[in-house]
Amino acid sequence: MDLGGYDQCIKVKVRPTEEQPNLPKFSGQHCLITNSIYLPNGTIVLNGETHSLLDLFGRPYVPLTLAQCYPSLCKPNVIQEGLNGVFSVPDNVFDILGVGFSVNVTVDPNDCHVAKRPPYDAVDWTVLIIILLLVFLGVISTGVDYFYISLNNRKPSSSTMKLLGSFSFYSNANKLFSMRMVSDAIPSLNGLKFFSMCWVVLGHRYMYLTREPINNFTEVPDILKELGKMIIVNGPMAVDTFFLISGMLNMYGFLITTAKTKRYTVKDVINGYIHRYLRLTPAYLMMIAFTATWLYRLRDGPLWDRFVGDYKDACRQTYWANIIYLNNYLEPQNYCMMQSWYLAADMQLYWLSPIMMYPLWKWPKYGWAQLLVLTIASIISPFLVSWFGHIASPIPITSDTNRRVREMTLLYFPMHTKSVSYVLGIGAGYILYKYRKGNLSLEFNLWKRVIGWLVCAVLMSYAVFGGYYSFQTDYKYNQLFSAFFIGFQRFFWSIGLLWIVLMCVRGYGGFINTFLSWKVFTPLARLSYCVYLTHIVILMCSIAAQRSSFRFNDYDQIEMYLGDLLLCLFAGLVLTLLVEAPMLNVEKIILGGGGKKPTNERRPRPSAPPEQGHLHVA
Fold it and tell me: Which of 110, 280, 313, 425 is the most buried (most CB within 10 A)?
């Protein structure tokens, strides 16, 4: 792929002059011309082995994308017809050379760009007005909060003053950056949340590499041979950390509440659903609206529409599936915000969680038997999907678009192939509650602890590195090997995490607990939900605005990743103070907090109780 001189092209402007009064008025139009070189018997040598184009790309041709600059008067379909005419006439260059292949040229209208941007529409203006209104409320609320309430040691007395104070940047920032936690918090979770969020951002930066103009693209198979790259390609396991924490805090908070009320009714279930939806959705809606409108206008580039344009169109067409949290099933091939599959899966698991929590509370033996069955089913589900779908690895390592879409739809997006971590988290929450109430002992002698840590290390290492061969482009598909790894990978990772959390709570965590519980991670963990929502925007502003091809190397990627991470934290902070924290305050004032629930944040903080554990997700 050669992107040409994008800025030079679109800056061209031609106007009639006195010398040439009949000269048409036009500007430069930068177009990406995709030349599909058809090679019916074409092969490529990778890692010393010969592969057919059909096996590698799912089609017997090589796409060569070249940028060309045309007058804006030229329509893409006319350019396409003209170029195809050149290659199809008798005695064309290929016939003369006798090379035995043909070329088909395609010009997507979305791949042609001029300097002038599309006009603003009603949706653009509506989203802008909402953002400006939130900024205005924040400024007014901050002024009243700081100068009238804080400096004079007053307390807001009326509901109106409390609602106005909900938008205060000053108060919300103080709560966000507070290092203090309640006595029953689990400090080690903060470190796990923060580093898992960092892992997600890193994985997504590398994920987009295959769609970028890399000069050394054919070296990717050799790059995958590096064992350390398994940390990158297995980055999706970061969400299993959050599934586990979400299930754990959900169950822990449930037991705290039922211990006080001695009941759990249908009304309690419905109230929990309402609280969760209202606490999760406002910030999510804002990012859907921003992705559908103003993200597209932040930057531009020859690849901008291939990335951001597709996201904008998807959010305008399928937003409805996102706001009901079913996009991973209803629109798996064209859903808004690529990272939102997790939000849907987590919400679906929350909807189903009473089925697991109630029996465990009411009839523990039956509840544990049910959890065992669900755990086994959660392992068998991805195993069978891999087995019958002939899926080689947890994420598709292929340039075949059709194969990638099929495997992501069958294996990666659905909730039922990701549920094992949440189910184990439910059990962990029960154990944690019983331990802290003194009804369960977590005593382990030295040898048991040593063996436990060794098993933990082995299981988590297998989860990261055990599927090494299945991620290689020259992998000779082994149905049992792939299905076993896909079925057990998340289970082994979650078991290792459970051991770490329980040992940290029990006091056997040592330096691991000391590091993960470092107070600096407390506010960073609180930002993780909004960082998760905003990080794709930050990545797109860097990746999709690429102006030229480049040579891939890890140093440059890590350097850019560290910059991305800093900007992601800032974007998450803005979204938290502008939308998430104010809306959580408003929800709490209008509907109530749903009772006192333990959390990893100091009260009263405008954040979620344990059943909202996903709010710290990345």
Answer: 425
Among all chains, which residue has been given the structure tokens 């009639």?
16
- Look up residue 35 and give its DSSP letter: E
Who has greater pLDDT, 111 or 100? Answer: 111
Closest to 554 measured CA to CA, from 209, 236, 238? 209
pTM exceeds 0.70, yes or no: yes
Q: Give 517's contacts (C-beta < 8 A, 6+ positions apart).
A: 187, 188, 190, 191, 504
What is the rounded CA–CA span in Å between residue 152 and residue 50?
Answer: 77
Contact 73, 24 (CB under 8 A): yes
Interhelix angle 446-465/479-506, nearest 10 degrees:
140
Does residue 607 register a pLDDT over 70? Answer: no
Is 92 a residue whose pLDDT tops 80?
no
Rounded mean pLDDT of 344-350?
96
Residue with tokens 């691991």: 512
Cβ atoms of 255 and 428 closer than 8 Å: no
pLDDT band at residue 19 under the 50/70/90 scheme: confident
DSSP characters over 252-302: HHHHHHHHHH----HHHHHHHHHHHHHHHHHHHHHHHHHHHTGGGGT---T
Say if strands 102-106 and 26-38 run parallel, antiparallel, or are unpaired: antiparallel
Rounded to whole angstroms, the Cα distance separating 584 from 276 reads 10
User: Which residue in this structure is represented by tokens 């779908």?
Assistant: 389
How far apart CA 291 and CA 319 sit, in angstroms, is 10
Question: If you search the block for the tokens 């809606």, which residue do you land on?
Answer: 285
| Residues paired with 517 in a beta bridge | none
Hey, is 40 helix, strand or coil? coil
Q: How many whole angstroms separate alpha carbon 60 and alpha carbon 38? A: 6
Whole-number Å distance between alpha carbons of 421 and 78: 53
Helix intervals (H) in 166-237: 169-176, 188-207, 220-224, 230-233
